[in-house]
Amino acid sequence: MPRPLRAVGLVLFAALTAIALLLLGTPAHATPSEAELTKQIDAKSKQFDKAVQEYDKVQDQLSASKKKEKAVNKKLKPLQKKVDAAEQTVGKMAAAAYRGGKPGAVNAILSDGSASTLLDSLSLLDQLARSQSKQIAEYSKAKAALDKQKAALDTEIGKQTQAKKKLADQKKSLDKDVQKLRDLRTQAYGSPTNYNTNVDYGPAPNLPGSAGKAVDYAWAQLGKPYNMGSAGPNEFDCSGLTMMAWNAAGYSLAHSSYTQYSQTHRISRNQLEPGDLVFYSGNEHVAIYIGGNQIIHAPTYGEPVQKASVDMMPPDGYGRVG
């Protein structure tokens, strides 16, 4: 074959090969099944839940540290004024003693006029100066102790602020991952339909007292969707639900299952009563007990606020509010 024809043939062969490859297509990754995507979402959601709970815990600790620092600063301010005033008085006395040849200056300091001679005046000034110096030493000692507390709190606040930022970044990243997986599942299989806010769950148990109010609130949220970091009125996460339930009963709980564990009194399984909190998964998850071995909780993404057995998974502890 002449060279020009040979070259044309090679070009034609390459073109046909490229077209064939385009027609055949390159191997593509198959879309995961709905069950597999849901499994991935659940796994990511648990990581996200843990990050949020840790974030809330650090936030509570940071708020407590700042409150302590505010109290220390409140004590420091008047103490510093006392130190300054005492030092100023000693300074005046020293100046008066230096002007020993001027009784008028001494009398200006000793307004009661009890000293009959300049020597007596100077002696009295020395005694007063010693007394003031002792006060300064006492004030300074107290101030040094408070300064030490403040320095420790400043260090603690710095560490907690850094931890909060790190967890906030982690939360943001995990939230994006969860949302991408949810969007992929929706695009491939449509929106999940395993909850219905129009279901009639019947009347809440008629329970007395604060616990009854907390249970009534939780019952009224049945069927509402889960959303991490939410505390109503339309969406909830686990600690947001229990926090708002007890808020309706007049009690303040933190928006963190870890902190709620520390805020409640430890009880045993056989002491469980409606309104008590049940903790799971190393205190990463919390639910409210409603009696009859049943709890109400906000499980995870794609699942609504619902009733479940208290033994849906092994409980790690039980807590009583109040």
UniProtKB/TrEMBL annotation:
<feature type="coiled-coil region">
    <location>
        <begin position="41"/>
        <end position="68"/>
    </location>
</feature>
<comment type="similarity">
    <text>Belongs to the peptidase C40 family.</text>
</comment>
<dbReference type="InterPro" id="IPR051794">
    <property type="entry name" value="PG_Endopeptidase_C40"/>
</dbReference>
<dbReference type="InterPro" id="IPR038765">
    <property type="entry name" value="Papain-like_cys_pep_sf"/>
</dbReference>
<feature type="domain" description="NlpC/P60">
    <location>
        <begin position="208"/>
        <end position="322"/>
    </location>
</feature>
<keyword id="KW-0732">Signal</keyword>
<protein>
    <recommendedName>
        <fullName>NlpC/P60 domain-containing protein</fullName>
    </recommendedName>
</protein>
<keyword id="KW-0378">Hydrolase</keyword>
<keyword id="KW-0175">Coiled coil</keyword>
<keyword id="KW-0645">Protease</keyword>
<dbReference type="InterPro" id="IPR000064">
    <property type="entry name" value="NLP_P60_dom"/>
</dbReference>
<feature type="coiled-coil region">
    <location>
        <begin position="136"/>
        <end position="184"/>
    </location>
</feature>
<dbReference type="GO" id="GO:0006508">
    <property type="term" value="P:proteolysis"/>
</dbReference>
<keyword id="KW-0788">Thiol protease</keyword>
<dbReference type="Pfam" id="PF00877">
    <property type="entry name" value="NLPC_P60"/>
</dbReference>
<dbReference type="GO" id="GO:0008234">
    <property type="term" value="F:cysteine-type peptidase activity"/>
</dbReference>
<feature type="signal peptide">
    <location>
        <begin position="1"/>
        <end position="30"/>
    </location>
</feature>
